[in-house]
Amino acid sequence: MLAMFSDAVDVPDDVPMSVVDEITRHTPGFTAWQQDSWLYHCGDGAAYLGPAGYRELQAFPEALAMLREDHQRYGWTQPESEDFLRSLDREGEPTAYLFRCLHCGMGLASWDIG
Ligand SMILES: [Zn+2]
Question: Which of 44, 45, 86, 89 has the most CB atoms lying inside 10 A of its own CB?
């Protein structure tokens, strides 16, 4: 039943449609790209903490690890990945987007590939 929606948004199967609905309707400043980049954990939508640079991400090693995994999936080498992570800037380009799971508290991050 999530199939149609999942075409547009990468939502895990264990996240109820009502959660996605809640996020897309009730999040202030919500934009289209964020719908694509929203992160989920423990079967629920994560809380968006805001843009983050490398400095901010260092407080969330799990979030950094997530970004490295993403890069690997895109075929980046490890030095390329580290260069990118160090160039992340909270107020500039590129920027990462920091989330935190409301249930287990794990830090999560997405990034703008541009
Ligand atoms: Zn969690």
Answer: 45
- Report yes or no: 106 and 59 within 8 Å, Cβ to Cβ: no
Going from the Cα of 78 to the center of ligand 1, the distance in angstroms, rounded, reads 27
Nearest to 61 by CA among 18, 22, 107, 27: 107
- Residue 48: name the closest of 27, 68, 66, 67 by CA: 27
Please give the distance, rounded to the nearest whole angstrom, from the Cα atom of residue 46 to the centre of ligand 1: 8
Q: What is the pLDDT of residues 49-69, one digit of tens each?
A: 989 999 999 999 999 999 999
Q: DSSP labels for 64-101?
A: HHHHHHHHHHTT--HHHHHHHHHH--TTSSS-EEEEE-
Cut 0.85: pTM above it: no
Omega before 94 cis (within 30°)? yes
